Amino acid sequence: MSFRLTRRIRSYWRKSAVATAATAIVMLAATSAGALGIVSYEETPFTQAEIDDNWVVDRSIPSGGYGSVTFDGRTNVLEMRVDPDNRNEPSPFYYTEGLLRQSPGATALRADLYIDPAWAGHDVRAGFWGVGHDGASVRSAYPIVEYHQVGGAAGWRVWDSDNGQWLPHPATTGHGEWATLEIILDSETGQFVMSVDGATTTLPVLGSESLGEVIVNMYNYGPGTPAYAMHVSDFAIGDVLPSPVEKDDCRKGGYVDLGYANQGLCIAGIVSNR
Asked: Domain locations in the chain?
């Protein structure tokens, strides 16, 4: 098991290895926000090289270490650990420990988070953060989905950047299960679609045109509280493909201009929007 306890300053930009990662085309289901169509995802496994080269510390370094591991039958899983006796003490802002990656131009982010049975009975925060960028690449919103367990109550919540408050998310996930998290920027409705296992809620984009960064983190509750670990896998960076107006727009090579891999996927984009 390999962990990194020293901060590495790395290039924020995608490496050639990422460019060769597999691409998944995923159909979007209808949501209350109107996010319909197709997302093209670029799979970006949490290999140790990917973590070392493309992820940097955000706020505080994971106090118990971090690295790429095999976990629960999955390979290339990011493991981050909290050590309560090794908390960064300047202020509560730095009690959040995590890693950040640049995702320039992305309009969708996806990852699986394991809801660990070992979390039962104590306080836990495990978050998947999108960072909205406006047209000038300035941070404009923080669409966050977080598993939050405090005082025996557990559930999902999202961060409302507009009003500066946490709001409940309708998803439910049991201990011992992987949850698939997605943050999708729906430019047609001006909403972030926040999805946990297909259950969704929405947040305003507040001028965001892309999800320019992504953060995974957890909270260190300090001395006298239990140590715990967070496991994240199947991370992917995506783009919401434009929706053609008519099927004929896909034919005679039109699907290429619309950003689709082939004519069939292009036509499927129309069907899914009806």
From this structure: 26-240, 241-274
Quote the tokens at residue 15.
């490496």
Residue with tokens 């290999």: 47
Q: Tell me: the pLDDT tens digits for 26-75?
A: 544 433 333 445 788 999 999 999 999 999 999 999 999 999 999 999 99
- Asked whether 62 and 55 are in contact (CB, 8 A), the reply is no
**264: number of Cβ within 10 Å:** 11
3-state secondary structure of 38: strand
pTM as predicted = 0.82
CA atoms 146, 151, 155, 158: torsion sign: negative
Q: Take residue 170 and report the two structure tokens written for it.
A: 């309708």
Q: Is the pLDDT of residue 173 over 50?
A: yes
Structure tokens at 194: 């926040």
Residues 6+ apart with CB under 8 A from 244: 250, 254, 255, 258, 266, 267, 269, 270
Query: CA nearest 269: which of 7, 9, 27?
Result: 27
What would be the CATH architecture of the domain defined by 26-240? Sandwich (2.60)
